[in-house]
Specification:
The chain has 318 residues and is α/β, with parallel strands linked by helices. It has 14 helices and ten strands. The protein starts with a strand and ends in an 11-residue tail after the last helix.
């Protein structure tokens, strides 16, 4: 069974969209979305500096656009995703890309919603100087109490020995100076806020208002939620989970457990891929993984799709 996943914030790098613009129709699609959401995706994806694309209001639409553009080269329609994949998920903002790929939202709806999400979260992040840092290695029963002692939130529990802490700039600095016993490294992330914590509560209210304009469909492919790793079959439930998830931890560890329980044999990560395939290699031994970084990866991805065992059912299972 093939799993399709989309990365979250921090995966972006300067110029990462450049090679994708050589594909037919990609630049036209990006410019259409750019006009709709009032953000020049082509400029920021090709010429944006590291600081510019670190801005939450820019990074989030860029990431969802990249995931959709790359995944649509392999799965042009929702039916194609349903026919060839057994499950889909996205990490944090990647959930919006996954919602479009599984048919709950249209691509245009996902882009409009992610623009509002990015603006709302950027505004919430501006209230207090906050940030996030990844802890590599260390046991959860040691790391979690240490974070609590420093006033930090385990915003992403990613599995494979990785937890991402979030809090104020002072709290992150204290963590860098005083890492938990057994933790190999503490790596500050290229994000501009303490996402998935109480600091994002104002953004939740803004998104709740935004989604009232939507009429979400039920996903055509199993959708695995960041909230608790459960398969979600209701489009309305899916959207509500995405809204609440802005101020609550991402449980990617539980998502990967669900992939395993569902019988995953292969995993493809949409562009800009790398982070989630890295986690899968450590947490899901035996599962073949492929990250879409440039169009050069598409042929290998097509081969993986063709050879992935146990084609997915057309409708998701409870």
């Amino acid at each position: 069974m093939l799993v399709l996943v989309a990365p979250g914030q921090g995966a972006q790098t300067p110029g990462f969209l450049i090679p994708w613009l050589d594909l037919p129709g990609v630049e036209d699609q990006l410019r259409e979305w750019s006009e709709t959401i009032d953000l020049d995706l082509v400029h920021y994806g090709t010429k944006g500096t590291e600081e510019e694309i670190r801005d939450t209001a820019v990074a989030q639409p860029l990431l969802v656009a990249a995931s959709l553009i790359s995944a649509r080269q392999l799965f042009p329609t929702v039916d194609d995703v349903a026919a060839h994949t057994g499950a889909a998920a996205g990490h944090s903002v990647g959930e919006l890309a996954a919602a479009a790929l599984t048919g709950t939202l249209s691509d245009a709806e996902a882009m409009s919603l992610v623009r509002r999400r990015g603006l709302a979260m950027a505004e919430a992040a501006a209230v207090t100087e906050t940030g996030m840092a990844a802890l590599l290695g260390g046991a959860e029963d040691v790391v979690l109490p240490h974070l609590e002692q420093l006033g930090l939130t385990p915003a992403n529990v990613n599995g494979a020995g990785q937890i991402v802490a979030a809090g104020t700039a002072e709290q992150i600095a204290a963590l860098v100076e005083n890492k938990p016993e057994g933790t190999r490294r503490v790596v500050p992330l290229k994000v501009a806020g303490a996402f998935h914590t109480h600091h994002m509560a104002p953004a939740v209210s803004a998104l709740q208002a935004a989604v009232t304009e939507l009429s979400p469909a039920d996903p055509r492919t199993r959708y695995v939620s960041n909230k608790d790793g459960r398969v979600v079959t209701s489009g309305q439930d899916l959207v509500e989970r995405m809204v609440g998830q802005v101020a609550n931890p991402v449980r990617w560890d539980l998502c990967m457990e669900t992939f395993k329980e569902l019988g995953a044999t292969a995993l493809i990560e949409a562009a800009p891929g790398g982070t989630l395939t890295g986690l899968a290699k450590r947490a899901l031994p035996g599962v073949r993984t492929l990250a879409l970084k440039t169009p050069d990866d598409l042929d290998a991805a097509r081969e993986l799709i063709a050879t992935a065992a146990d084609a997915a059912p057309a409708a998701p299972a409870e």
